[in-house]
Amino acid sequence: MTDTDTDTEHDAEQGDGPGPTAGRGIEEASAVVAEVVENVERVIVGHHEEVEHIMTGLLGRGHILLEDVPGVGKTMLARAVAESFDGTFKRVQFTPDLLPSDVTGVNVYNQKTNDFEFRPGPIFGNVVLGDEINRAPPKTQSALLEAMEEEQVTVDGETHTVPDPFTVIATQNTVEGDRAYDLPLAEVDRFMKKLHLGYPEEDEEAELLGRVVGHHPIEDLGAVTTLADLSAARKTAASVTVASQVREYATRLAGYTREHAAIGVSPRGSIALLRAAQGRAVLDGRDYVIPDDVQTEAEVVLAHRIRADADHTGQGLVADALERVPVE
Fold this sequence. Notes:
Strand content: 5-15%
Distance between the termini: 7 Å
Radius of gyration: 21 Å
Strand order of the largest sheet: 2-5-8-1-9
Number of helices: 14
Structural class: alpha/beta
CATH class: Alpha Beta
Number of domains: 1
């Protein structure tokens, strides 16, 4: 199926296309993304594709996991994205002695009021950076589960809602495995995307050195958009049309992974794939999803959810699925 074929089908289902109000919504949301991408790239060099992936993840109301070797800019990328909005940015430095209450918060007795008061932890931010998340034991990592899935935290039987919008951007390094913990599958599955940065090209690294030796540009980075704009852009992305053919295609991709792996993509993964595809459509200025959107997002959304056998990898299975599963 070509883009033209999909466009024709969309017009047949939706009439003559979006009205002026919908069109303005897409344009405004796309402009928000472009402003943030441009702002982040004042600091980050050579990772345009990954920055776009983070932005489509934010539009799709997802959380992001950045995994790579130390020193390639994972934390700086997360900071640059967070600094581009005018909301609250919180950081959690995960360590082996970190407790769940250090993340979620704790009830403290107030002698003046003769009652307990809740003191929120760093999870209560619009953008929360979990730095080196695999340094903390599973019990502490699990403190994120409720917040990431339900946007709330329960402490001593009392539920507290996290700020809206809410996004977790976590980093983990791929070395020193003897000093780190594997993330539970239940937690990995809550991350919409898992991204790898890799080393920069020679010319990119030379440009990076020219920017950061001396005064670092992150110190001058300011907000270029508001939380209200981000919330509006998310609502616009959620309203992007996903035709039945596209939904069925995503279902077949997930089904392929389940047939060829010990643990395949969960329904949560299928939902994440289509939400990310909606964000990709907004990025491209469309109010409907095409198969190309699904294919562009598939690897970073699906691969980390798969537990394959010794002869395969999650990335390999996703690549096989994209090659063998037809677009009908």
